[in-house]
């Protein structure tokens, strides 16, 4: 089964495989969990297996249905994403409703995935609710979210919830060994980087894309005890330039200090973490950005000197 190629969440994997084997497919599911743990990959593999026409070992990968699915041309499958990465509009749900009313073409069933379903407008949510209340016998709808609290209670009550857990550090490492180029592997396997991923392969890939930035943040921390404050300000340009993802970088600084604290029980690391948390609050409250970074570096420098 292609499920074996998916990483982590073995309980979910076994549950979905069991549903396929016993032909016990429900009409609506809610896949929940943090970003980047594979919810969408699991949903697509589940959809492929549901639509597969083989007698066993679904998805087979060879039948007409599987080939159409792999070619992204399956007439009985539809995946909805937020428009412009922002919201799912009522027009998209109405299109789903039009398609779901049509009988299956290639398979005996139809599958619909709504990714980031928490971005549905109120009108879209209410419209979808009508379909969830009385879905066609041949249809399965899979909702995917990282923010379950934003969904209508009535929608959640009509779906079977499948909760995805964050991946373990070992699972993240195994993914890196299998999927990443060897030259990247040695760098990205640092324990601080693994911890920063917080069990999310999606976050790992984002960090990999910005690895030079994270390396520069490490260097700033290393220099705090070695250079004067004027030099620290001059060599910390990356923090001033990274306004869009500064909270991630501050989280990474905290990961580094937490790790240092594990091995060296020194109050300066505890205080450094507090300084960073206070900085995050200021940035969230829209304080002057450059002045906030100035103050962060000054307070850290004073703590270590």
Mind explaining what this structure looks like?
The protein has helices at residues 10-21, 39-51, 64-70, 90-100, 122-133, 153-157, 169-179, 182-188, 191-197, 201-209, 211-223, 229-235, 237-241, 246-263, 267-284, 289-304, and strands at residues 28-32, 77-80, 110-114, 139-145, 160-163. The model has no long low-confidence stretch (mean pLDDT 90). The chain has 305 residues and is of the alpha/beta class. α9 packs across α14 and α14 (246-263) runs antiparallel to α15 (267-284). Strands 2-3-4-1-5 form a five-stranded parallel β-sheet, sandwiched between helices. It contains 16 helices and five strands. The chain folds into two domains: 2-163, Rossmann fold; 169-304, no CATH class.
